[in-house]
Each structure stands twice: as structure tokens, then as C-alpha cells.
Design a protein that fits this description.
Blueprint (H helix, E strand, L loop, with lengths): L1 E4 L4 E2 L7 H10 L3 E5 L6 H5 L13 E5 L2 H13 L31 H11 L3 H9 L4 E6 L3 H11 L6 H5 L17 H10 L1 H6 L6
Parallel strand pairs: 2-4, 4-5
Antiparallel strand pairs: 1-2, 1-3
């Protein structure tokens, strides 16, 4: 769920960016006022809901991103845990069946490189596009999965929220895709993904070398 915090701040959960940990941490720290709408609601699906309209006109919103290459790896590992890849949402159901990965239905493959090629053919630059659904000008803070706890501490301090920092720093990881094996990208495929996802690499400061 998107989470509304006690000070009216809003956490938007981009899939596979550490949002499950953030949601769990915010809940265990006693900072959540209520859950709201769909788990992965983006800005449009948040601000158009009646509950959001009861908040200040421009609530402080924050989210997290990750290196696009690692996003592809994480999504592939996660879906392979199911055996047959699930169907995420339904394009024919409007907002009721919406899921940010609905576009990728049918792209799954047990071979990582083939999965990535399927996505590049279906929706080139998908991760950059998806991040753009969440990171709008009225989003006040964008943290990184690679610096998850430090960035969460930073945004909570920005909001002057009272929380137990030691408890936060001691929390276990949540929602980590199993499979510790290193994924070896072919040079050509890696270059192509970086080329197509260049907006995300540049915008969020990820290295392209």
C-alpha cells in the first residue's frame, strides 16, 4: 500500500526498490497513520483518490529507486520463485486491475538474458518509464535502494518525525529476492539496457561504466 504517515507525508512503493523494508520499518516504528489504495499506487493513482484529497493540497511524498540493471535482476529472480510467472494485474480492468508490471506480462523466461530481451522488445526503457510514474516534480525525496537505511533516516529527519533510529538500523531485510548467484550480463545486452535506460541512470546518478 501507499502509506500515509502521521505527519501527512506519503510513501509511494515502487516495486523491487526496497519498499517492503521501508513499509515494514515505518509500521514497526509507529509512524503510519493509514494504508492507502493499492500497494504500488503511483502519483496519479494516489492524488486522484478521495482520501488523498483530505490531505494538504501538496503532501510531501517520497519513494526509492535502484540501479536499473539491478531492478531487472531482482524482478527476474522474484518471479522465478513462483515456477510459472504470475500475471500482474489486468490491462482491461482499468485502475481496479492496475499493476505497474502489467505491461511486462508475458515477458517472463527462465533465462535471464531472454527475459531482458523480451522486455526491451515489448517496452524499451521500461524502468525509466516506471520511475517516472512515481518521481514527479511534487515528490520531495527520492532515496536509493543501495543506501536504503541511510536514506530512510535522512527523509524521516527531514520531516522531523520522532523515531527510534537504533531500532531502524537493527531491522532485518524484507522482501529480498532469493538467489544469491551473481547474474552475468553479456556485454552487448548490458550496453543496450544502459542505452535504453539512460534517463534513469543520469537522473538518479548511477554509473554507466
Amino acid at each position: 500500500m501507499a502509506l500515509i504517515l502521521k505527519d501527512g507525508s506519503v510513501f509511494l512503493h515502487i516495486p523491487k526498490t526496497g519498499g517492503s523494508f521501508v513499509s515494514t520499518a515505518l509500521t514497526q516504528l509507529g509512524l503510519v497513520k493509514r494504508e492507502f489504495t493499492k500497494k504500488h499506487a503511483d502519483v496519479d493513482r494516489f492524488i486522484n483518490k478521495s482520501v488523498a484529497k483530505k490531505l494538504p493540497p501538496r503532501p510531501f511524498m517520497f519513494c526509492f529507486v535502484r540501479n536499473p540493471l539491478k531492478w531487472y535482476e531482482s524482478w527476474w529472480k522474484y518471479n522465478n520463485t513462483f515456477g510459472d510467472w504470475p500475471t500482474w494485474g489486468s490491462a482491461s480492468s482499468g485502475d481496479a486491475g492496475w499493476h505497474p508490471q502489467n505491461i511486462l506480462n508475458g515477458c517472463g523466461d527462465t533465462d535471464f538474458s531472454q527475459f531482458v530481451r523480451n522486455v526491451l522488445k515489448r517496452r524499451p526503457g521500461y524502468v525509466s518509464e516506471m520511475y517516472g510514474w512515481y518521481v514527479r516534480p511534487d515528490v520531495g525525496f527520492v532515496g536509493k535502494n543501495e543506501n536504503l537505511i541511510e536514506d530512510l533516516v535522512t527523509v524521516l529527519r527531514m520531516r522531523e518525525l520522532d523515531f527510534d533510529e537504533d531500532k531502524l538500523r537493527s531491522m532485518a531485510k524484507v522482501g529480498v529476492a532469493p538467489g544469491e548467484e551473481r547474474i552475468n550480463w553479456s556485454d552487448d545486452l548490458r550496453r543496450e539496457v544502459i542505452r535504453l535506460e539512460y534517463p534513469a541512470f543520469v537522473r538518479y546518478g548511477y554509473p554507466t561504466e
